[in-house]
Every structure is written in structure tokens, then in C-alpha cells.
Amino acid sequence: MDSSEPEIRHGERVPVPGPRGGVLLPLPPARAAAAPEGEEVGDELKSAYWMQWEGEAARTSVWRILGRLPGISRRVLALAYRADARAAVMVVVLQIASSLMSAFGLLASVRVLSALFAQGATSERIHHALPSLVLVAGLLAAQGLLDFGVARGQAALTPRVRRAVEQEFLRLSCHVRLEAVDDAAFADEANKANDRGLYYMRQSVPQMVQLAHAVLGLTGAAGVLAVLHPLLLPLLVLSVIPQGYAAVRSARAQFLSHSRYSTLQRRIRLFTWLLLDRDSAAEVRASTAQQALLEEHERFARRIEMEDARLGRQEANVALWGRAVGGLAVGATYAVLGWMTATGWLPLAAGGGAFLAIRSSRGTLVSVVLAMHQIYEHALWIDDLERHLERCRALQPRCTGRRLADGVKTISVTDVHYIYPEAGREALRGVSMTLTAGSTVTFVGANGSGKSTMAKLLAGLYTPSKGSICWDGVEVREVDAESIQAQVAMVLQDPVEWPLSALANVTIGAGSITEADPQRALGAVTESGADRVIAGLPQQWATPLSKRFKNGQELSGGNWSKVAVARGLYQDAAVLLLDEPTASMDARAEHAVYEAVLHGGYGERRRDRITILISHRLSSVTSCDMIYVFRDGRIVESGTHHDLMNHTADDGRPGEYREMFTLQASAYRSAASSGEGNE
Ligand SMILES: Nc1ncnc2c1ncn2[C@@H]1O[C@H](COP(=O)(O)OP(=O)(O)OP(=O)(O)O)[C@@H](O)[C@H]1O
Fold first, then answer.
1. Measured between alpha carbons, how far is 407 from 399 in angstroms, rounded to an integer?
2. Are 634 and 430 within 8 A, CB to CB?
3. Measured from the CA of 616, which atom of ligand 1 is nearest?
4. CA 467 / ligand 1 centre spacing (Å)
5. 12, 97, 251, 525: which could form a disulfide with 531 (CB 3.0–4.6 Å)?
6. Atom 20, ligand 1: which residue's CA is nearest?
């Protein structure tokens, strides 16, 4: 460095040279600071939608969880009953019967013990115990069979609940009005509902069965103890409270550690995804970023490793604590039990039965605590899902029961305004136009002037905020939104690249991916220029257009556009709307598409159709019957190419269309003349 130059240190503000100059930016550090020891890795991440309720069960009071359980159980029961009433009733009845068998089994065991502990010769005592022993075996076998029935019922029920819920979610979501889907908050909510709500709803039936099994088991044991001696019930509570407290603490620690672990996993997945993702693959290699990314990955992996070990140790400590407290309580309970038996308060056999009941209750209690925490937390996600479904129901497309007649002669747009939800200003401000069958109309204008919005209103995807759109005199608000959408074929700026066969990519616009009209499909691809694309594919029409499939093929952007135009043509709808479909096509392909739409085979059918083109390439649309020039949400000029080229604005300057057209034409002319000059 030149010694006369002052040295610039990290943090000092220096002017960054540039056209505007003078922006003060501190010199960046030579090395990014690592997260300070002890700080949570992932703290810098925004919280993700799927973490909203994570660990919530561990933060809520046990009383609140208990208070909500009856409501949650009723909801799961209702869901199961709706999905498969027979299986739901079967699971409930068999589950109760199985728990009764377990309680009777315990009572029968006491009778076995009574017989064995009675006075007399051993063979005599065994002889007396035999009927009760057979009963115990029979009850155990019956319980086994009943549990088998519960498992069978649950196996039938769970997939049914899953299908019913998923289908309802998808059916409602895919019909929601487009304005709602445009809203980012709604999209987030839908994601959360799909990712978490559905998942937990599917699990709710087996979890509830598990909880019912455990609760009924505990109740059965309590009932048996009460029958043996009323004082045994408080004894059970005495042994269960510390054990339950320890189980709650352990469950809460598990829930919290799971939530922390998810944050760490999320951080490291970012790097895993960057290293493996197909979209970033080329740039990762070209910039030789692999090593840097691997090092970052390793840095986080080490933190996760440490965190993992810490969590393992913590869990072991909590478990030890739980066992110690639980063990002390159980020890005290057994001591009281022993004292009751020794002093004759309780017959020896009843003492043995009580011992068995208390012992089995301990394990069951841990299952109850874990299951109720889990069910409570998952229910929060299910609440979100249900709220989302409610919203979707309210956002279904307009359904008036009245449908548009097939075909249209005139669409009249009168003083239409449109404002996007939460937008500060109107995207359309008083647009009027008349579109007649057989005509080809073009919307031109600067970016953001409202062309695509107008197209979506015409397609019935949005409803005007003000003004009217009438199809042959019928106001669109009076008919089912879907009956308009069915009459419009729309090719959008960024068409969907359907991961389906080439043929299905053409026919899906007409609502089918399995049925095709072969002649119509061939005609559509020939007119759009997609015929050559499909002919070059290894399995031609049957080729899957996605690398995710075996023998799948990926198309270039321009070729995808040709397929999209073919899809629009195949639909053969009353209105064909092409919103800059040729933006990524080469010049020859673009020319061919416009030729096909304006003058080609499709032109024959155009006689009773309305064709609307949106294009920035003005030379392609000069032969259209009507050109509407949009600016700032309004139509500022309209007419044929000839009219507009002769139009002069009020201030004497050339009209907007003439200006845009002359600008584009002169750019080509000057490029061509400089090319000639160079030769
Ligand atoms: N989904 C949306 N939500 C909110 N505002 C939107 C949405 N889509 C478009 N807009 C806004 O509406 C106005 C008109 O947009 P539109 O897409 O209709 O313009 P356009 O003329 O088709 O533009 P382009 O030539 O770039 O395609 C713009 O200000 C745009 O930012």
C-alpha cells in the first residue's frame, strides 16, 4: 500500500466510489465473527411457521392441559366417527372391554393369592386356586383378543381419517379465490396447516387410543384397589403423585429439548440444502464454494454434536431424578402396605393384589403424562388447521347456482376498478372496453400498468372492486365464478411446468391428464410449434417432462412456452388469453406463434372466439383488430395499429403507442444499419 494513503481500519466509515458517490459504508470485517460460546445456534434465524407451537406443552400448566383434554377427545372421536362410524364404535367398545378384562384379571389374581395363602396342604391350596387361575388365564386371553380387535379397528380407522381430512383440506384449498392465495399470510397459514396440522390430525386417533388405554388401565387399577380396601385408594394416590410429578418434569424436559433441537437442525439443513440442491449446484461448483459450505456445515454439526450430548446427559439426569423420587414414594407406599398386612388391616392376598395394581399403575402413569402432553401440543396445530379450513370455506369461489351459457358474442367492460387486497392504490382505475367474438385484441403498456390484472378479471379470477363486466349482458357477479373460468383458456407469463407427460401437459388445460382428443392435441402442438419439441423427446407424447421421473426430460424455457401455448389452444375455449407467452421464445418461434394465433389454423376457429394478446413486442401485434394502451391502471389510447400510429396527444406530441412503437422500430433500424456499416 502507498505509505501516503491513510490506513483504513474495520468499522471506519469510508466513502464508496460510484456514480452517486458519498455513501458511507463501514469497511467489512476480515473474518466473520463466530457465534459466542454458549449462545444458541440458530438464535439469529427468524422463527419458522412450524415452530409456532413447539414446546408449548412444556410451557403450559398441567391443569390447563387437563382442562382441554375432554374437548380434544370429543373432537377426535367425532372425526373418527365421521370417517368410519363402525370402526370408531368398535375401537371404543373393545377398548373399554379390554380394560374391564384387565381389572377383572387383577381381582381374579387376588383370589388366586387368597387360595394359595390359605391354611391347608399345598396340593389342596393349589386345587382351590385352580379355578381362579383358569379364570385369570381366560381373562388374559380375552384381553389379548380384545386388544387385537382394537388394533384392527385402529388400523382401519387411521388411514380413513387421514384420507378424509387430506381430501377435505385439498378440495377446499385448491378452490380458494385467487386474491386470498396472493396474500402471503394466507399462504403461510396453508403451509402450516398442510405440514403440521394434517400430520398431527392423522396421528390423533392412535394417540387418543393410547391415552384411553392408559387412563382406563389406571381407572381399572384404582377400582380394584377400592374393592380390596378403601384405604388403598389414597395409598395409590400417594405413590402416584410424586411419580406423576417426576413424569411431568421429564415430559416437559423432553418437549423443550425437542424444540431446541429443531432450531439447530433447521440451521444445519440450510447448508445441507445448499450443498445438495439442484438449483444451486452450478453456482456452487463454478464458484468452488463447496469447501466453504462444508466448513460451515461442520461448524454447526459440531455445535449440534455438543448440544446432543448435553441433551442426552440432561435427559439421563431428569430420568434419574424421576426414578429416585418415584422410587422413594413407592417404597413408602409398600412400607404402608406391609404395615397394613402385618397388623391385619388387610388380608395377605389383598396386599399382594394391591402390590400388583400399584406396580402396574406406575408404568401406566408415565404413558398418560407423555400422551396428554403430546395430544395437547398437537391439538394446537389441529386448531390452526381447523381455523384454516374455516377460512377456506369462507373464501370459496362465488357460487350463485347460475352458469354462463357456452360461447360468448360480446364481453362489455364498464368503468372497472380493481384494488388488490392490502394494496395502497388501485391496479385498475375506470377501464371500459367491448370485446366481440371473432376479434383479436391486444393490451400493451409499460410494466405494472394493469394489463395482466385486466386479463385476470376477464378470466373470472378476480371480481371487479367497482364497475361491471358482462358476458352477453349477464353480469359476472351473478354467475358461478367457475363457469367463467371454464370458458377462458389462459396462457400466463410464467406457465406451470407440469411434471407430467408431454401429452398431459397439453390436455390438462381442458381438465384432464388421462383423457385426450388426439386430433385436437396434434393440431394444438402443430400451431404452437411444440410439435418439433415433442417429436424430439425419447418417448414423444409419453415422455415425462421432469427430471424427477425415470427417463424424464427437462425443456428449455422457450420450449416450455410452446407447450403452454399448445395447452391454451387445445382448450378451445370461447376466450383465448395469451399473457406474454412468447417472452422466452427465440425470434422465429415467437413469430410462428403469433402467425398461428393471428393468421394460422387457429385463425379459422377464431371467428367465434375472442382472442386477447398481451405483448411488449409491438411489431407482433400490428394486425390485431383492436389495441388498448394501458398506463397506470387506465386505458389511455385504443384503436387499430393504423389509428394509433396517426394519433397525436392533446399536447401535440405523438401518442403513447406511436412513441413506444417508434422507439422499438428505431432500435432495430439503428442496429441493422450499424450492422450493414460494419460489413
Ligand atoms: N398479486 C398482486 N398483489 C398486489 N399487487 C399486485 C399483484 N399483482 C400485480 N399487482 C400490482 O398491480 C399493478 C398492475 O400489475 P399488472 O401485473 O397488472 O401489470 P402489467 O401491466 O401486467 O405488468 P407487466 O407488463 O410487468 O406484466 C402493479 O402495480 C402491480 O405491482
1. 20
2. yes
3. 25
4. 19
5. 525
6. 448
Q: How far apart are CA 552 and CA 557, in angstroms?
A: 16
- Cα(612)–Cα(606) distance, integer angstroms: 11
Helix (H, G, I), strand (E, B) or coil at 26: strand
* Ligand 1 near 449 CB (within 6 A): yes
Helix (H, G, I), strand (E, B) or coil at 584: coil
Confidence band for 18, pLDDT divided at 50, 70 and 90: very low
* Closest ligand 1 atom to 179 CA: 1
Q: Which atom of ligand 1 is nearest to the CA of 455?
A: 18
* Beta strand 23-26 pairing with 13-16: antiparallel
Q: Do residues 629 and 657 make contact, with C-beta atoms less than 8 angstroms apart?
A: yes
Contact 546, 499 (CB under 8 A): yes
Q: How far is the CA of 657 from the centre of ligand 1 (A)?
A: 20
Contact predicate 118/125, CB 8 Å: yes
Looking at mean pLDDT, say which of 57-61, 274-278, 669-673 comes out highest.
Answer: 274-278
Residue 452 CB less than 6 A away from ligand 1:
yes
Answer whether 627's CB lies under 8 Å from 657's CB. Answer: yes
Residue nearest to atom 29 of ligand 1 (CA): 448
DSSP one-letter code for 499: S
Whether the CB of 448 sits within 6 Å of ligand 1: yes
The per-residue pLDDT for 46 is 46
Q: Which atom of ligand 1 has the smallest separation from the CA of 422? A: 4
What does the pLDDT read at residue 115?
A: 75
Is any ligand 1 atom within 6 A of the Cβ of residue 615?
A: no
Q: Is 628 in the pocket of ligand 1 (CB under 6 A)?
A: no
Nearest partner of 452 among 614, 602, 314, 563, judged by Cα: 614
Contacts within 8 Å (CB) and 24+ apart, 593-601:
593/528, 593/529, 593/562, 593/565, 594/620, 594/621, 596/527, 596/528, 596/529, 596/565, 596/569, 597/440, 597/527, 597/565, 598/440, 598/623, 598/624, 599/623, 600/527, 601/523, 601/526, 601/527
Nearest CA, atom 11, ligand 1: 427
Residue of minimum CA distance from atom 3 in ligand 1: 420
Distance 179 CA to ligand 1 centre (A): 13
598, 629 Cβ separation under 8 angstroms: no
452 Cα to the center of ligand 1, angstroms: 7
C-alpha cell belonging to residue 90: 368398535
| 386: alpha, beta or left? (left if phi > 0; alpha if psi -120 to 50) | alpha
Find all residues with CB under 8 Å of 48, minimum gap 6, and list them.
Answer: 266
Instruction: For residue 488, give the DSSP letter.
Output: E
Ligand 1 pocket check for 453: Cβ under 6 Å: yes
Residue 11's Cβ-count burial label (10 Å; 0-12, 13-18, 19+) is: exposed
Q: Are 610 and 411 in contact (CB under 8 A)?
A: yes
Q: Which residues pair with 416 in a beta bridge?
A: 431
Long-range contacts of 419-424 (CB under 8 A, 24+ apart): 419/465, 420/179, 420/182, 420/453, 421/179, 421/180, 421/182, 421/183, 422/183
Interval 598-651: pLDDT, tens = 765 555 666 788 999 998 888 878 888 999 999 999 999 999 999 888 888 777
